[in-house]
Structure formats: C-alpha cells, structure tokens
Amino acid sequence: MTRARTIRVLLADDQKLVRQGFTVLLDAEPDITVTGQAVDGVEAVERAAELAPDVVLMDIRMPRLGGIEATRRITEANTAGDGPKVLVLTTFDLDEYVFEALRAGASGFLLKDASAAELAEGVRVVARGEALLAPGLTKRLIEKFAGMRDENGPGGARLMERVADLTERETEVLALVARGLSNLEIAEQLVVAEQTVKTHVSRILVKLGLRDRTQAAVFAYETGLVRPGGA
Prior knowledge:
The protein has helices spanning 16-27, 41-51, 67-76, 95-104, 116-127, 137-146, 154-163, 168-178, 183-190, 194-208, 213-223; strands at 7-12, 32-38, 55-59, 85-90, 108-111. It has two domains: 7-131, Rossmann fold (3-Layer(aba) Sandwich), CATH 3.40.50; 145-223, Rossmann fold (3-Layer(aba) Sandwich), CATH 3.40.50. The relative contact order is 0.11. It is an alpha/beta fold. The chain has a five-stranded parallel beta sheet with strand order 2-1-3-4-5, sandwiched between helices. It is built from eleven helices and five strands. It holds the Pfam family GerE. Residues 159-224 form the HTH luxR-type domain. This is Response regulator transcription factor.
C-alpha cells in the first residue's frame, strides 16, 4: 500500500514556547512534520520560499512584519496555485485582523488554544486545498466585517461585474459556499451529484481569479451576493 505523503509545516510565531509546543504536537502526528520555524513575518516569507512547505501556521501579531502582510506576500508569490497554504493563528479578540488575513489569502484560522486534534486536523484540511470556513467563527468574521464594506462604491461595482461572468447555477453555488456549506451539503440542497458541485466550485474560482473557498466566501459577502444574517 502506498504511504500517504507527509504534510510539511512551517511555524511562524514570535513566541518560542508557542513554536516549541506546536512542534511537539504536530511532529507526534504520523502524517505531519514541522520542517522549519520563523520568529517574525520577514523570516516567514523567506522560509516559505526556501522550504516550500505545504502549510504555514502564521501568527498575526509579530515584529518587523505582521502576519497579514506576510500572508499576502506568500500567497501572491503562489501564482501557480500549488504553493504554501496559510493557516492563521489567533485569539478571540482579534476578529478584524483575522478577516484581513482571510482577504490577504489565508485559507482559514485556528485559535491558539486549539486542542492537538484540532490543530492536526486543521493542518490536514488546509493542506488538502480546502478552507476552515464553517461552522462557527470564520463565517461570523466574514459576515461581520464584509457587511461593513461599501458595496456601492467603485470597488463594489467592479466586484459585481465579475459576478456577472458566472452562470445562474454557479452564482447559486457561490452563495451556498459563502454560507459555509460543504460540497456534499450543497449537492443535497440542489439535488445534484457532489462531483457536479466540485466542478462548479472549480469554475467559480477560475472565473473570479480566487485561490480557494475562503476567498470565494469573502468575495460573496463583499459583493453583497450574500448578506450578513440574511439571504
């Protein structure tokens, strides 16, 4: 039997104890290994380019260069779409920063007090190219801060022009993605095959020039396609 590929992780946090603790937890998993550490955002960008990890665990508040800008630089360098995925580390009191990190290209986030099982599963989910969107806090963040955007401004108008490129069914799927539904849940709601939903999601990402489902959800809220707390 072919052995599953090991997920390579880069840890970026200015607190040594946090890096050491997460390293111990992740290295204990048979399919995950920590290949490097960074003490600030500048080093995170450099190490991500050097080591080409599958996932970067990124703290938001770090010296020299914060996690949001480091995330943006790492994801913008990933033009082929096969580079590192960023998983943001945060606490409950940093909602606005987390949302900005998602807009910068992060695939999701974990709270720093996450259990060992949650940490490992979060890394696996992001490494698969999926997003830590739902249930719960990420969706709340997107709703809260995207709802504050001016969708009638010139930026919002340009975003709506991009929505016009989608078919009616693709627009429907995008709205359901933004509400945090999985491909299977969307398939059940639309009464179609799960593979059909996957195809729609792939086409949506290509048409809109987005990296993953998290970016798609942010886009849907920013355009007003999905409204906080409503349809």
